Amino acid sequence: MSRPIILALPKGRILEEAAARFAKASYDLSPVLGDTRKLVIDCGAIRVLVLRNSDVPTYVAHGAADVGVVGSDVLDEEGLELYEPLDLGIGRCRMIVAQRADAKTDELAHLRIATKYPRTTKAYLARKGITAEVIKLSGAIELGPLTGLCERIVDITQTGETLRQNGLVEIDTVAQVSSRLVVNPARLKLDGDRLGALIDSLERAV
Question: Is the pLDDT score of 35 beyond 90?
Fold first, then answer.
């Protein structure tokens, strides 16, 4: 009996959207949606690893998972060598630049930007020809401008409601974000038939 395809999925909202997308492709991942704390869940031909979003590319790149579902924001930030055959069209949001509604940043000699995405932010600044200090944060990015840590933030938003509630306004869009199917290139060579069939089924379901 062949081993299951190992699929890395992120916790949270994307898990539910991904399970629905896989169901349309005739892969039943419903066991992952139960009230379970298990992190490895067998779903027939697929074994699911439930991970933090930012860890999905690492597991796939190092061969601990064959395929994964992860946001394009994380892929751009991590910059790992992965095959990206498909945009699943789920987890849609925007990566934006925001600042306090009352900010006077044009008068500043030294601009500071806080973000979970330093690599992506530096690439954005280079494209725009903006000089700024990039500060890496892991938690509530919106707090940065409110406490004087920074003048601007680069973060993900869906509706902009959290920004509004904290007195911040969007001033630019860095990128449109959605979740992608990623595949370990070595696994694709070794198990091309099964992984190819999975990719084809998902492509028809998108």
Answer: no
